[in-house]
Automatic annotation (TrEMBL):
The keyword Lipid biosynthesis does not apply. GO terms for molecular function: metal ion binding. This is Protein SCO1/2. Residues 29-210 form the Thioredoxin domain. The keyword Disulfide bond applies. Gene3D superfamilies: Glutaredoxin (3.40.30.10). Cu cation binds at residues 82, 86, 175. Keywords: Copper, Disulfide bond, Metal-binding. Disulfide bonds join 82-86. Pfam families: SCO1-SenC (PF02630).
Length: 210
């Protein structure tokens, strides 16, 4: 009879830490969603989301939290090799911004869409340049070293990890999937979930972008 395969202590600890991080993110976001329509308090006011980071864009330039100051940001963490979820999410984000641009071009010009990879090993500068061009002309794609991406993930309270049964070339990434709206100082305003379509994103931008 085959003996059941045992997980190493380090593997169990890693899975437990990832699960705790993901539960914490969902708990905070669920508690932070606006309770009453018309409230002027941003849903994520005071949330520990966002802050300093230093990454590389699709043109090889360095982008930091400070270099984006003065602009609202729509921020999504994903990866270009994602077969389904990420392209759909980024398309919703881009379509929502385009709708807002049509209604209020001046305000929309202050919104910077940002895609941050959670898969820096494959999402090189060249790969991201091709990926972001498919969605919006102003979309920034950010990558970096593993350490730099990990730091950005921690800053934005994003969970991401390689899926089971991976190899060095072909694998999926498990990750949280929210579109954050950040204010011109890089502080969180609200977030959009997968069920929020492009029209809801456009409405959110119209509500919060001044």
């Amino acid at each position: 009879m085959k003996q059941p395969r045992r997980l190493s202590f380090s593997r169990i600890a890693l899975l437990l830490a990832a699960a705790i991080a993901l539960v914490a993110v969902f708990a905070w976001l669920a508690a932070s969603k606006p309770a009453a329509p018309g409230s002027e308090e941003p849903p994520l006011a005071g949330a520990p989301i966002g802050g300093d980071f230093a990454l590389t864009d699709q043109d090889g330039g360095r982008v930091t939290n400070d270099s984006l100051k003065g602009r609202y940001r729509l921020v999504y963490f994903g990866y270009s090799f994602c077969p389904d979820v990420c392209p759909v999410d980024v398309q919703r984000m881009a379509q929502g911004l385009k709708s807002f641009e049509a209604e209020n071009p001046a305000a929309a010009a202050r919104v910077q869409p940002v895609f941050v990879t959670v898969d820096p090993d494959r999402d090189t500068v060249a790969v991201l340049k091709e990926f972001v061009a498919a969605f919006h002309p102003r979309l920034i794609g950010l990558t970096g070293t593993t350490a730099e991406i990990d730091a950005a993930k921690r800053t934005y309270r994003v969970y991401a990890a390689k899926g089971e049964g991976t190899d060095s070339e072909n694998y999926l990434m498990d990750h949280s999937a929210f579109v954050y709206l950040m204010d011109p100082d890089g502080k969180p305003i609200t977030y959009f979930e997968r069920d929020d379509d492009a029209a809801m994103i456009a409405a959110g931008l119209a509500k919060w972008v001044r």
